[in-house]
Amino acid sequence: MTEPPVRIGIVGAGIGGLSLALALRERGLQAEVFEQASELTEIGAAIGLAANAIREFARLGLVGELTAASTIPTELIYRHWRDGSRIAAHPVRQDDWYAKQFGAPWFGIHRADLQKILSAAFDAEHVHLGCRLVNITEQAGSVTLKFANGRTYEADLVVGADGVRSVVRRWVTGADDMVYSGTSAFRGIVPTENLRCLPDPHAIQFWMGPDGHLLHYAIGGAGEAVNFFAVVETPRIWLHNASVTEVPDEVPAASFRGWHPAVTEMIEAASSPVRWGLFTVRPLLRWYRGRVVILGDAAHGMLPHHGQGANTSVEDAFALAGLLADARGDDLETTFSRYQGMRRARTRQIQRSSQVTSTLLHLPDGPAARARNAKVAMVPQDFGWIHSYDVQQALAASGAVSVGHSRNEPS
Amino acid sequence: MPPDQVLAAMTEILGGVAGIDQAGITPETPLADLGIDSLMMVEVVVAAEDRFGLLISDDDWARFKTVLDATRYIDQAGGGLG
Questions:
Q1: How many CB atoms within 10 Å of residue A222?
Q2: Nearest to A149, CA basis, from A73, A38, A69, A267
Q3: What is the gyration radius of the CA atoms in chain B, in angstroms?
């Protein structure tokens, strides 16, 4: 090889950044990952890993470890906010329905466990903690990252995987493209045994009501805890600098007064009364500038109502790695343009659908809610396109070399 | 870009996404009649954005009912002139 070694800097050691580091390594490319936190401790919350991401991790041999830390839901159930009646239910683990349908399972997992598994599969030596990006400068032939701790890194290419508040995105677009959604959430993780009112504690369930909903699913190898996410249509305007703000103890449960006891019991059982503002990134025309490109929430931060924020960043990561490995002769702009061309419509479809879903989940009882109830009965048919997506097939269709799958080939 | 070229380009994009012959698409043809659902519409919008170098917000494209609506919007937004 006469080509010089490619210096790749990834900003952010979240799920997107670590997935990219692993995806690049699979393709024979080494990256350095820079993370502003001084330790790899993801926030205290869980995540749903869907088939579209797991099929990539499966190829890397990570499914055993993921399985040990995850719960596969029994069913996906939609319930009425007050009386708790089952509006619609779809099998997930039952009959192995989901995995058979989409070629890989769905896992509820703590973010910290996922981050631990991904970082262990990578290499601590190439993850640089305590590096908060403050500046990007371009010079002929390279780009330099400057961090608050005084460190610098000169790279041939930089990937911003630094989330919805991305510093890298601001450099790429020259604007603040973050938008407050007008909705916020309370979240928590509760021992399953403390939830005496909860029917089907190992299902993934949406409780849908006026101006809000509560989503929960179990996590841990034995479903020993339940992770919940309770969304309200307030405040209209977000006045805080941070995405998270403390609220008085009684606020989370009071926001769901009159709802089914399973809902209020779950919210009351959680500690730390904190409100999370839900932010998105407005659709962007370009995801790159010069030698710098963005992925995941930085590029297309979305509402979490399809549970696809992290899953689409995993898709982005494996797509970008495939295109970079396949195009070392081409200039970066050509490769970045291919990446954007492969990812922009897909992620915008999910971003848009998540927005529509937010409204549908928050309808008062009445004709619109009844129409919505008929729709949620069709969820596996209507939203299969999200879960059946296969990055390697998409790469192959775009003319790039895919690494294929050792299993889970769709029939 | 002159409006008739915008119209021609939009017709080409729609025909490609819907998988139908462009000859069957007139400016007044309702998009719904072409079988364009909301997922396909996002593909059309993203392709149009790339072609004309402008961003079409979700609120704006949700109002497009015909090829002509989309063409007028892009024309007024100055698409292709930059």
A1: 10
A2: A38
A3: 11
The shortest CB-CB distance from A348 to any of B42, B53, B54 is to: B42
Mutation to test the B interface, candidates A284, A286, A352, A381, most B Cβ within 10 Å: A352
* B60 touches A at CB < 8 Å: no
Q: What distance in Å separates residue A230's CA from the closest CA in chain B? A: 26
Residue A193 dihedral angles phi and psi, to the nearest 5°? -65, -15
Average pLDDT over residues A378-390: 96
Q: Is the pLDDT of residue A406 over 90?
A: no
Per residue in A58-94, pLDDT tens? 999 999 999 999 999 999 999 999 999 999 999 999 9
Phi, psi of A234 (to 5 degrees): -140, 165
Percent of chain A residues topping a pLDDT of 70: 96
CB contact B30 to A (< 8 Å): no
Q: Do B53 and A348 touch (CB under 8 A)?
A: no
Answer for the pair A49, A310: CB distance below 8 angstroms, yes or no. yes
- CA A149 to CA A134: how far, in whole Å? 9
Query: Which of A173, A303, A349, A357 to mutate to probe the B interface, most B CBs <10 Å?
Result: A349
**pTM of this prediction exceeds 0.90:** yes
For A158-203, what is each residue's pLDDT tens digit? Answer: 999 999 999 999 999 999 999 999 999 999 999 999 999 999 999 9
A283 touches chain B (CB under 8 A): yes
Q: Quick check: A285 contacting B, CB < 8 Å?
A: yes
* Shortest Cα–Cα distance, A212 to chain B (Å): 22
CA triplet A86, A312, B35: central angle to 5 degrees? Answer: 70
Give the model's pLDDT for residue A328.
63
Residue A16 near residue A317 (C-beta atoms within 8 A): yes
pLDDT (mean) for A366-388 = 96
